[in-house]
Structure formats: structure tokens, C-alpha cells
Amino acid sequence: MIVGERKPLSIVIENLSPWRKILVLGCGTCVTVCMSGGEKEAQEVAAILRLRGFQARALTIERQCEMEFNRKFAEEINREEVVLSLACGIGVQILSDLFPQKPIFPGVNTTFMGAPIVQGLWEERCSGCGDCIVHLFGNICPVTRCAKSLLNGPCGGSQKGKCEVKPERDCAWQLIYDRMREQGRLEELLRIHPPKDWSSSRYGGQRKMLREDVYL
Amino acid sequence: MSFLQKLLKSGTFVVTAEVGPPKGCERSVIEKKCRELFDYVDAVNVTDNQTAIVRLSSFASSLIARECGVEPVMQMVCRDRNRIALQSDFLGACALGIENFLCLTGDHQSMGNHPHSKNVFDIDSIQLLQILSDLRDKKVFQNGEAVKGEIRAFLGAGENPFADPMEFRVYRLAKKIEAGAQFIQTQAVFDLEPFARFMEEVRAMKLHERAFILAGVIPVKSLNAIRYMQSEVPGLVIPPFLVERMEKARDPKEEGIAMCVEIIEAVKKIEGVRGVHIMAIAWESVVPEIVVRSGLYPRPKRG
Amino acid sequence: MKIASLGCDKSGFPALLRFLAEYPQYRMDVTAVPCLGMVNEGMMLQAFENGYRGLLLAGCPIESCHNQKGSHYALLKAERVNTLLEEAKLPMRVTCALLTMDKIAEIKRALDELLPFLKEREQ
Questions:
Q1: Helix segments in chain B, DSSP class H
Q2: All partners of chain A with 3 or more CB pairs under 8 angstroms
Q3: Could you tell me the pLDDT band of residue B293, with boundaries at 50, 70 and 90?
């Protein structure tokens, strides 16, 4: 899922300051699960905006990243001056593609692709490099979870299973080592992995996927 | 062949030291350090924006060291440059007569003085070793295209025998040697017992026959310095008894030098250790005394 | 300045009533709830939208909450609402008093902290 966190309200209010009639638009998918932009948060932000003198109301769309979900709310969206979208960065842009005349502001900072680990804790798991190789590393992605994206083993700063960059973070390579040992596959880690092909990653610019068999 | 490589091949127990470039463009800083070290070391490591703090580049500093008559080991880290820039700088350095290279991954930018920057980490140190050795031996760039000209380069890598997962360290060293490392400079040795154990594993895998291993040492200047290194510097393991020793010392500087000399004498006796690398960070002036007191002076004459 | 209070009917609510009887100089509206755990951020913000400047949540001590985690969550939610208000530079605040029904001094302490704060913010 996409994980995001609430944008500080001081910044949101500053961005909205030239406007009066605001539609706070929550999203019912990922940001609902990570509790940053769902129905509840949209209601809260709308209440705060009203306390600050805006005319704000809240509405939640099931999935802002899909055009057809947004279309149904065209009337509601057009009625207000601006939209404060609490969806991820994808939702904000899709909404804007659909309502190009409408000023739309982000109310959430999209942070990463990850998962809830326990209630209240989310962790990044994937960087979308476009060429998945996790099977080589005990299904712990070194590209995402090692601060230096090392493919050939831990750096010299791994200590007691923790990352030198952030001691509260597990060293990805310690996790890789432990899991490969558990699976009796340590010798696979002796292989030298050549430089990764990053052309499938976002370093090639915006990516697209076309499936001709299902394309309309 | 570089002077450092020649000495190692001839079986000489070598001495290298670290020269940190200044936070500015004064070449005199490097010249002064090189003058101090000239008679006492065989080569100097020139660090590449060490601890992610912006300094005079290792490439330019290496050239300045070379002009001072001291052979540089140019450090290259993967944090700031991708495979295009690293290959290009390597060729440039070769063209200007730099012959020793130390391939490192590099400290993370968040530990340095520009923590808001992006990092690169297009490749890691092992991949860099592979790329540079292929440029030299197979005469190809990383993409397989031919490279022109004769490349003379002596390639090295670092290794930290004291980091976790400890059991994997010797295998990581093997990967570095497999990828093309001809010499290794280790993280600073303070605790001899785990280092001896590491070297035992090295010998069991006969890695000491495939690469020259130089033990790193750090002279400690004060009690604060050793405490700082013990608690704040990732990758350094300092046993408590050494901290105690500094606590009790009447003359901490003298104690630090004595400790360093003892460690050098001890690692010299370990089979497979072919030299020492003295990292006297911000205390380069102590290196001559350490070299003399360790019985490593005079150094062989440069050719 | 209007102050609202929500009191758990097992502790906070009777304590609030006793407090107001004993200290008539303090004025606030009192509402009973079954447990502080049911008071959510939306309700707190609603109180402010209804014109209250301060909100006092009075309920059982954390360890004796009849619903185990009710008071614990109330504290966290109150803190979250205060963070939102702070970020939005709004002058309203929520405060909590966790007590058994006879410990009305705790209510006085909470109000004596809250009221000067609100007054200061009002200017």
C-alpha cells in the first residue's frame, strides 16, 4: 500500500489562505488504512478549517487514484472553490487531470510504499525499481531497506543488527543474513551481484505500462 | 607498478597513513601533512569527502600529494558518483599518474554536513572494484565497450572485521578479493583477540595469499577521543580495558602512542598482515613517532 | 469564556458535579459519557465548533478504567487534538483530569492550568 502522513496544518492553512470555500476530500483506500487521509481525518481537517474561518466540508471518495470514482462527485467538487485532497500524490494528480480548472492542494505527504507492521507502525518495503530481485536476498529488499542499497553484503557500520545511519532501524543485511541462514542458503550470498540495471527504475523518467490485450 | 605494490610484492612490511584534505582550497594543508609524513610512510591514503563532509576532492589532493613526492592512495566512494563519473575520474587519475585506488562504499550523507543531499549508490564498493579491474584487465567499460590505453592501477578495498554479522565478514572480504581487490586496509584494530580470529579465518580461506592485508590502527589522543570513538563512531569496537587504561594514564597522549605502538607490534606478528595503515585523524604529526617507536623506521627509499 | 466538560459517569461526572457545588466561582457545562474512551477527536472538535474554548475530560485513572483502555486512549486523543489545534494556531485546548469521584482537587488543578493558558491565547 501507499503510506502517507498528514501534512502539517500550518502549511495546509498557509496554502489555502487565499481561498474560502474548501472541499476536504478524503480517500477511502491506502490513506484510510494508514490513518492519514480517510473519512475520519477529512472530517477533522474540515472542522479545524472551519474553526480557522474557512467554509469547509468533508467528503470521502473510495479511490481517488481511479478516474471513475472521482467522476461521480463532479458536482460536489465543482461547487467549491478549491479542493484539499487527503489522498496520496497519485490521487491528487488524477483528481486534477479530471478537474483541470480546479485548484487542488495536497493535505498529505506521500512517504513510501510499505505496510502496517503492527497497529500504528508502517514500514517501507519497496522502491519500485522495476526489476524485482528480492528472492536473491531472503525476500528482504536491499535496495529499499539498506540505507546504501548495497547488493553485496553489509557495510562496515552494521552493529548488533542495527543500521549505522539510524540505530532504531534494523540492518537490512543482518536480516538478509539471518533469513538466508535459516533457509540454509548462505552460500548464495557469496555470489557477486553485478551493478544493477537502474533503467527500469524512476531514473529513466516517468514510467508507463501498456497492456495491448486489455487496452481500450 | 606503484611503489606501494612493489614494496608489498617484495615482502616489505609497509606503512601507510591517512591524509584528510582540508575544508577549503589551501593546498598548503596537504603539502604540510605530506612533508611531515614523507620520510615515515610508503604511501598516503587521501580520503574522499570522509564522513560525508565536503572537502577538497580526493582526486586533486592526490595530485598535490604526488607533487610533494608522496605516493597517494586515492580513495573513491560510491556515495556521490555514479558508474559514469567513477569510471571517468578513474581514467583521469590514471592519465595523471595516480596508481593506487581504494574502493569504498562511503559513509551515508546523513552523517555528514550536507544531510539534505541525495545520495547516488548506483554501485557498491565490490562492484566498483569489479568495474575498475575490468577496465584494467579486460579493457572494457562496465557496459562492455572497449577502453583505450594502458591502465596501471593497484586496487584496494577496506574491510571491517569487527562489524556485524561477524561470521559474514571474511566472506565479504573474499568477495572483494574476487572482485579485484589486491590490497586491503582494515578498520582500526583495538581489540587484538577478534582481529587474530579474523586473520585465522582469512588464512583458512587462503585470502592472505591473494591480497595484501594492512591492519588499520588509530592513535588515541585523549580520554574524550577514545570515549567518543567507543560510543559514536559506527563500526569501531573498542574494548573497555583500553578506555580504562586511558582513564588511568597520567599523560594521555603518551599512553595513546604507546597503545598504538603495542597494537602495531602485535599485528606485525600475525601471519598474513603485510603492513599497517595509521589513521591519525587530525593528529598526523604523531605518525613519525609511532613509526620510529614501532621499529618501522627508516622506510625503504623510493625508486 | 465557555468551557465544556465531559465526565465518565463512574468517576468524572459525579466529581464534576461536586466540584461545581463546592467552587461556584468556576463555570462550565457538564455532560456525562459512559467512558472517556468513547470521546473521539471529532466530538472534541465539535465542542469547539459549538463555541467552547476549553474542553475538560474527566474520567477514571488509567489503571482503574472499567473499559481497560478508555482513559488511556482519551489521553492520546486529547493530545492529538491539541497538536492539530497547535498546528492550526487555534487558541482552543483540551485537558484531562483522571480521578476517582472524591478527588475534586484534580479538577481544580486541571482548570487552573487550562484557564490562564486560554486567556493568554485569547489576546
A1: 3-9, 27-37, 58-67, 83-95, 125-133, 166-179, 192-204, 223-232, 240-248, 252-268, 287-293
A2: B, C
A3: very high
3-state secondary structure of B31: helix
- Residue B52 has a CB neighbour count (10 Å cut-off) of 20
Residue A43 Cα, gap to closest chain C Cα (Å): 7
Domain CATH number, residue B211:
3.20.20.220
Q: Of A16, A77, A74, A91, which is closest to residue A48 (Cα–Cα)?
A: A16
Looking at the complex, does the CB of residue A101 fall below 8 Å from at least one CB of chain C?
Answer: no
Task: Report the domain count for chain B.
Answer: 1
Average pLDDT, chain B: 96
CB contact under 8 A, B164 and A161: yes
A3 sits in which H/E element: strand A2-6
pLDDT tens, position by position, B4-29:
999 999 999 999 999 999 999 999 99
In a domain, B137, yes or no: yes
Evaluate whether B98 touches B62 at the Cβ level (below 8 Å).
yes
Q: Model confidence over B50-101: pLDDT tens digits?
A: 999 999 999 999 999 999 999 999 999 999 999 999 999 999 999 999 999 9
| B63, part of any domain | yes
Q: Are B69 and B97 in contact (CB under 8 A)?
A: no
Helix or strand run (H / E) with residue A143: helix A142-145
Domains of chain A, residue spans: 2-111, 129-192
| C3-122: CATH topology | Rossmann fold (3.40.50)
* Cβ separation A8–C84 shorter than 8 A: no
3-state helix, strand, coil in chain B (%, to 5): 45, 15, 40
Mean pLDDT by 10 residues, chain A (216 residues): 97 98 98 97 98 98 96 94 98 97 97 96 97 97 97 94 94 98 96 96 91 93
Contact B163 A178 (CB under 8 A): no
* C21 Cβ under 8 Å from any chain A Cβ: no
Check pLDDT > 80 for residue B303. Answer: no
- What is the mean pLDDT, run by run of 10 residues, along chain C of 123 residues? 95 96 96 96 97 97 94 97 97 96 93 95 79
Q: Does A43 touch chain C (CB under 8 A)?
A: yes
Q: How far, in Å, CA of B63 to CA of B93, rounded?
A: 8
Residue B300 is assigned to a structural domain of this protein: no
CATH class of A2-111: alpha beta
Distance (Å) from the alpha carbon of A145 to chain C's nearest alpha carbon: 30
In whole angstroms, what is the distance from residue C58 CA to residue C19 CA? 12
Pairing of strands C54-59, C3-8: parallel
In this prediction, residue C122 carries a pLDDT of: 80
Residues of A in contact with B234 (CB under 8 A): 156-157, 159, 164
Give residue B191's domain range: 3-293
The residue in chain C having the minimum alpha-carbon distance to the alpha carbon of residue A6 is C84
With cell 559514469, the residue in question is B84
Within an 8 Å CB–CB cutoff, is residue C42 touching chain A? yes
Question: What gap in Å lies between CA A51 and CA C88, rounded to an integer?
Answer: 9
> Could you tell me the residue ranges of all domains in chain C?
3-122
Cα–Cα distance list, A61 to A22, A28, B234 (Å)? 16, 6, 47
Q: Which chain C residues contact residue A36 at CB under 8 A?
A: none
pLDDT at B281 over 90: no
